[in-house]
Structure formats: structure tokens, C-alpha cells
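A student in our group prepared the protein record below, which I am reviewing. What it holds is a sequence and that sequence's fold in C-alpha cell form. My question to you is simply how this chain folds and whether the C-alpha cells agree. Do not assume that whoever made the record got everything right. I have pasted the whole thing underneath without changing anything:
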Amino acid sequence: MAKFLNTKKAVSEIEDLIRDADQKLILISPYLKLSIDFKELLTYRNSKDKITTVIFGKQELNPNEMKFLQGLRFVILKYNQNLHAKCYLSDDKMIITSLNLYEFSMNNNKEMGVLINLNDDSDKELFEDAYREIDFIDETSERFEFTSISEEDEKKEIKPEPKKFIKKKNFSKSKLLTTKELSTEIGISSRKINSWFVDNKLMYKKDDDWFASKKGKEIGAIEKEGQYGKFVIWPEELIESIVE
């Protein structure tokens, strides 16, 4: 039977789940800022040549976090911009919780969760239902690679000029595409396309929602409400500008 977890128990059970995981370990958390204990556990698992998949939804990773994760050969990083779920899965256990893999949350917040055990007959159906959703999130998330930046470039704070978008044209009657659809058409990750829109002041993010700026709306951008919050759809003619 599923077991209730408070903050302290959730942290402890997640540690045990990582430590005891055999072939499968998937960690889903929008925020990544790992405590020393979690870093040690991931390092230990990596030393055993066991793959860990980490799916996250916020890109504000500090340099130390980047350096640590880059150094783990058997950690696969994936990015999902709409991610808000927190779930931790091993071969036979799963923890669904409000707790992020974020040290502040573990030490300061009041969290709750449930532990589901595949080996418990009463949990089996629940485990399998949740696993299907985890698999969907995994399959629809993008592989994430850090871009190496030299210390000299960091000191100079060099930022490339964003590509210019098509000016003084209105595409309000055009076919409209989501960022994901644009990504498929162009062959560029959704993350980079979102950055292009932000750099050109066509779109901005507030909390977990995306909004079109005044400039974006002038060229035909439309805001939509979806399962995971607000997002923006764009005229397909912008493909020409994005790939220039």
C-alpha cells in the first residue's frame, strides 16, 4: 500500500531510492540544485557505470552545478520547458512528491509525497499507470548539453548578437505553429527557439507561462492556454528568420 511521506521522510526515501537503484533511475524535478548528499549518491552510482536520467525544467543552473553534472559520464540530462512534476523512479520504487531536488526545499519547505512499491500487489496498478506518464515525459523531453565557455569569455561577458526577425510584416493570416512544431520543421531545439524569441523581444516568460510581447503580437503571435499553462503560437514564415 502506498506510504505517506512528510518532508524528512521524503528526503530520506529519495536518498535510499537512489542508493538502492539497480539498472533504472529517473529523477524528475523542475529545479536542480543538489545537496552534498545527493551529489555523493549520484557520483557513487556513476562510478558503478549505471545510467541515471535527470529531467528538469528550469535552466538557472549555476556554474558549479554544471561542472558537476558534466563530469558524470553516465548521467543523461533532459530538458522539458513545461515540466512541473516531481517524481523519482527506480526499478521497483517510485516517489511522487512536492519536493524538488533543490537543497533549499529540502531544508526549509513543508513538503509531502507518497512512496509506491511495485512489489506490493496493492501498488502495482498505480505504479504502472504513473510509469506510463513518466515514460511519456522522458520520451518528449530534449537531450540537454552544456555549452563550454572559457574563463576569458566569461570575464568579458561576450554575448552573441541575436538574429534579426522579419520586420514590418504582419503574418496574422498565416499558418500558426507551436515552438515544438517550429523545432521539428527547422531541426533546432525548442529551447534555442525560445531563446531566439526572447532575444528578439518577441516573447517573455513569467513564472511557468509564456507570453507574447507587444512586438510579437504585431507580427501575428497568439497566446494559448494548454494543459501545462500558457504558451505562444507563431506564424510559420518566421522559420526564414530563425534559420538565417
